[in-house]
Here is the input.
Amino acid sequence: MSSSPLSSLTSSPLSSVGSRSPTPPGYLSPPSSGASDSGNVSHVRVAEDDQDREGPPPAKRRKIAAKEPRTTEYLDLRALNESSDEAHHKIQDTKLKKLTEALRSKKKIVVIAGAGISVSAGIPDFRSSTGLFKTLRGEHKLKSSGKHLFDASVYRNDNDTKEFHSMVRKLSHMVQNAEPTPFHHMLATLAEEGRLMRLYTQNIDCIDTSIKPLATQVPLAKKGPWPKTVQLHGGLQKMVCTKCRDLKDFDGELFEGSEAPCCKECEDIDLVRTVSGMRSHGIGRLRPRIVLYNEYNPDEDAIGAVNAYDIKNRPDAVIVVGTSLKIPGIRRVVKEMCAVTRDRRGGFTAWINLDSEPSGVDLANCWDLVVKGECDDVARYVGLPHWDDKDCGEYEMGDGEKVETKKIVGVVVDSKPAIAIDNQGILTPTDSPRQQSLTPMSSIPKLKQPKLDHSKSFLAPTSKPEYTKDGKPKKKAGRKPLPTGKPSKDIAKAFPTTKKGTVKTPTKGNAMFPGLVKKAPTTPMRPVSPTDHRNNGDYDPKSSQPEVVIPPFSETITPPSKPTGMSDLIS
Here is the structure.
């Protein structure tokens, strides 16, 4: 019998459902669709891993948004003022608003300033076409640039020293007649508001430090707290002795000729030594406290400490203004400050100068905004109030003609602050609000306060009263009478020393010690020497010799028996 083709086929899936083993717990059922074997194995492995894992689920990874690429924008204030194109104004106004809002709202601003911020005050800069390096060459007939007069080698040649003194004396007169610029006042306002973290100034004119909020410390301390202004190259405000390091206010009249003036402190010390016969230590020379080229900066360690502290605190805005960044040390400070500021969210860096930003790989991608124009124009656009203007009230900056200004009228009265008195007393209570009851008071019955029986104890349990045979309550036993002064018979029997059995009370003398009778006061006892015994007799001032009393011999003690051979000796 030949088998049919159907019998040779395998059983259908439905016919083998009952023979399948149940799916163990923890394993996922295979999908109904035709999934691959590799997919099923992966699902089983994931289920096993979830079942074997112990402890809390893994923490979710924080999504960190990718940093937006920082670009550099350019703003030309001179072209903005001269242009009449509305489209150009709209584009440039956006950039200008970005600059003004940063200077109005940032809380930790670092400003690195050069000689360009003092040009409008009448102090020339160094490297421009009208700067000191070019003008000094013609005035002093120098063979090279006027930079030579700012080198430490000027003290090696008398002629160079003379020209250096002449230049310093001229600069001091210019500084005395100079006034702070609008940009100086803007920096002072930032410092007064507490939003200026630090001002690193390369200027030696000391116009910035002459303003109270921007005052500095000379010499700069190596440990904080530090002042708002850090002078990177010193200043013409002080002169210092090269030997004793004594600081004095700068006096330009002393610096005349090729010889540096002598230090008066060193002269006084040397005079004292020579008069006392000691050898002379020499006399120091005075010089302006400014840092020249190829010279050690005495505040170098302190400046490094301040720079490290500011970088650690991460400023939110860095403004580099009026400098060309030709000095390597200043260039490194700007690079580090800008890198830290642009790395934080909302950080802002700006370059403000008449010239373009410095080129170089080290300063690439350092600026968010490059402003070409006068720094005083930037201060006017920002529009901060004067640092010592205390009556301006609360001010709000706006855009152009849309600003609605509110006039603040007030009267300033000089008054002393009130002295607060700390009264440690009890506060007077105030009347509590009266509340109307829901039911009238007349309908509430008056309650009598129960009388309390203070004779009863609230703690001890009460006992039933006892009655006599007649039905009257028994009286409580009263207190026992106190003992009288006369002794009882029992006490007399305990002391049978008397004849009649009564106790005799002493009539005279002390009641406790009957035989003790007070005697009249006698003369004091005589003093006794350390080698003598005390005699309790009356003191006789005539007797100065000690009295020795020998007791009389009364009897002889005879032993009951005498040893053998001793009778002859005793008798």
User: Anything to note?
Assistant: The chain has 13 helices and ten strands. The chain has a mean pLDDT of 75. The beta strands are 73-76, 109-113, 196-201, 229-231, 234-241, 247-249, 286-290, 317-321, 348-353, 369-372. The radius of gyration is 56 Å.
